[in-house]
Amino acid sequence: MSENQAPGSGSGDGGHPASGATPETAETEYQQEVTELEAQSATAARLFDVRRIIGGLFVIYGVIVTIAGFTASDADLEKAEDININLWTGLAMLALGLFFLIWQQLRPAVPPVPAAEEQLPRE
């Protein structure tokens, strides 16, 4: 680093590789960095997919309510006119939760394409 250069300012060209690098090397490094960032973005998109959260919660609550339906007493069934509402509701919640989880597996979230990539490539 030269004496006139501020710390952390790099080569003075906005964070690009050193001025001694060839344009091909700089382009290759840039492409590798973009590829790594795209992979991180795709992972984040899958991790925070709302279908996974909704599906997981419905499955957990569905298991709890289904267990409550299996352990219902005769007095509970009599109150509900002999319909085991906890069992049916729990099974419906399980089905809905599994639907969301399967949907998330079959159609994973794809991160949006950055605006720079939507333009035609330069030659």
Q: Indicate the percent of residues in helices.
A: 55-70%
% residues in beta strands: under 5%
Helix/strand order, N-terminal first: HHHHH
For the biggest sheet, the summary is: none
Separate helix tally: 5
Assembly classification: single chain
| Global shape | rod-shaped
Mean pLDDT: 77
Query: Segments where pLDDT lies below 50 for 5+ residues?
Result: 8-12
Radius of gyration: 28 Å
Compute the number of strand runs.
0
Instruction: Output the structural class.
Output: mainly alpha
User: N-to-C terminal Cα separation, in Å?
Assistant: 34 Å
How is this structure best described in words?
By secondary structure, the protein is mainly alpha-helical. The protein is built from five helices and no strands. The longest helix is centred in the N-terminal third of the chain and has 25 residues, at about 25-45.
Keywords:
single chain; 123 residues; mainly alpha; 5 helices; rod-shaped
Topology overview:
Layout: H1 23-47, H2 50-70, H3 74-79, H4 85-106, H5 115-118
Helix pairs in contact: 2-4
Describe the structure in brief.
With 123 residues, the chain is mostly helical.
